[in-house]
Amino acid sequence: MGKESGLKERYSRQMLFAPIGEEGQRKLLESTVCIIGMGALGTVLANHMVRSGVGRVRMVDRDYVEPSNLQRQMLFDEADAAEALPKVVAARNKLQRINSEIELEAVFTDVTPANVLELIQDVDLVLDGTDNFQTRFLLNDACFSKRVPFVYGGAVSSRGMSAVFIPGVTPCLRCFIQSADAGGQTCDTVGVISPIVDIVASYQAVEALKYLSGAAEARRDSLLTLDIWHNQYYAMKLGKPREACPCCGLKQYPALREEEATLLSLCGRDSIQISGHEPFDLALWHQRLSPAVRNTKVNDYLLRATLPEGERLVLFADGRLLVQGTDDPARAKTLVARYIGS
Amino acid sequence: MELIINGSKRELQLESRTLAEVIDKLGLSGKPVVAEVDGEVLVAEQWPAFAVMPGMKIELVHFVGGG
After folding, report:
1. Confidence of residue A1 (pLDDT cuts 50, 70, 90)
2. What is the pLDDT of residue A337?
3. A37 in contact with B, Cβ within 8 Å
């Protein structure tokens, strides 16, 4: 079977859907998306993009697979968690088997003001799979400064939300909210059920398909909010960009100007991330730490160990450090100083 | 004052009768919330100057951060 007929077979049901058709499918195959965050939303988004035939999919995430992810992060399995594989690597491995025609880029990194513009360069659309407002504001500002559409999605508990933000056409996230205070409502504090994740990410995915296949007129022009346990649904009209918005009106893009925090508390997760260290030689650190620590796990990307004090230390090859089991930055610094030095 | 908030009737004791006070009474000040009153979208900086009237329909949309 030739490539062309193979493609026709693979995407036949999607091409029969008249609003996409053969032309829309061709546009999808020529498109590039960037998915930031490869957790619950991100895995559903990537699954849709790759199966639908979006030609190039860049996935960015800083985290690795853990057993508590498996309830809802649909591309991962028990072997990925046992191996403590980076989520982007585990996702790429799975997606390659689903659609080998797609160019997949797995970027294992933290998204920061220093790298965000490079990460969204040359992409047609950015899909939001992040789990915090700080990164969302950064993505929002980066996308609006480079005029790249940004499809917001969020899910926690049984509640979810989604909106399509198009620079120069619709408002952006900052037109609606300024506060990044989630009020303690994160997936790690109040939980989340998997159907809301699939629903929100699917709302995001369909908007991506509309935009990338050339059906801009079909865009949903509302901020959708729903609670699938309590049976509530509300669609608020997006309206116009706000003149006083730091992005749309004032073109300031505040998050791009922020200094990168070296110490970051991962909200609600009982973890502190510390960045700014030189890259780690993981094999060397494995040797050094082994006498003092237990339950070590090392792979090409990270070294994880349980400290005698009870906390877990994770060293990433790129120089990041994670202290799990505390939300106290001072405690995290103390432990890092004790085992890694400064 | 009786208001209709997210589709339900609520009785709130208000002094300044502004949208900012309503949102404060509901414990949502400082949170990522946007309001819609009779089809008009109102962001946080507009709440202190917006007077609420009895029976007004107010939708409060609380942005969801997880994912």
Report:
1. very low
2. 86
3. yes
Q: What percent of chain A has pLDDT over 90?
A: 81
Nearest CA in chain A to B38: A236
For A54-97, the pLDDT digits (tens) are 999 999 999 999 999 999 999 999 999 999 999 999 999 999 99
**A129 vs B65: CB contact, 8 Å cut-off?**
no
Cross-chain residue pair A185–B67, CB shorter than 8 Å: no
Other C-beta atoms lying within 10 Å of the C-beta of residue A19: 12
Active site (catalytic) residues of A: 187
Q: Residue A180 corresponds to which tokens in the numbers above? A: 């990044």
Predicted-complex ipTM score: 0.91
- What domains are there in chain B, each with its CATH number? 2-62 (3.10.20.30)
Nearest to B36 among A157, A161, A236 (CB): A236
Chain A hits for B31, CB-CB cut-off 8 Å, are 179, 181-183
In chain A, residues under CATH classification 3.40.50.720 are 31-257
Q: Measuring CA to CA, which residue among A62, A237, A235 is closest to residue A160?
A: A235
A136 to chain B: which residues are within 8 Å by CB?
Answer: 65
Are A256 and A138 in contact by the 8 Å Cβ rule? The answer is: yes
Q: How far apart are CA B56 and CA B31, in angstroms?
A: 22
Contact: B43, A153; criterion CB under 8 Å: no
Mean pLDDT, range A248-255, rounded to an integer: 95
Q: Looking at the predicted structure, is the pLDDT value of residue A264 above 80?
A: no
- Among A35, A177, A226, which would you mutate to test the B interface (most chain B Cβ atoms within 10 Å of its Cβ)? A177
Rounded distance between C-alpha atoms, residue B17 and residue B19, angstroms? 7
Q: Which class does domain A31-257 fall in?
A: alpha beta
Residue of B nearest to A179 (CA): B32
Put simply, the answer to whether A179 touches B31 (Cβ < 8 Å) is: yes
Residue in chain A lying closest to B30 (CA): A179
Q: Which fold has domain A263-339?
A: TATA-Binding Protein (3.30.310)
Q: Where in chain A is the domain with CATH 3.30.310?
A: 263-339
Backbone dihedral region of A193: left (phi > 0), alpha (psi from -120 to 50 degrees) or beta?
beta
Measure A185 CA to nearest chain B CA, in Å: 8
Of A247, A153, A236, residue with least CA distance to B41: A236
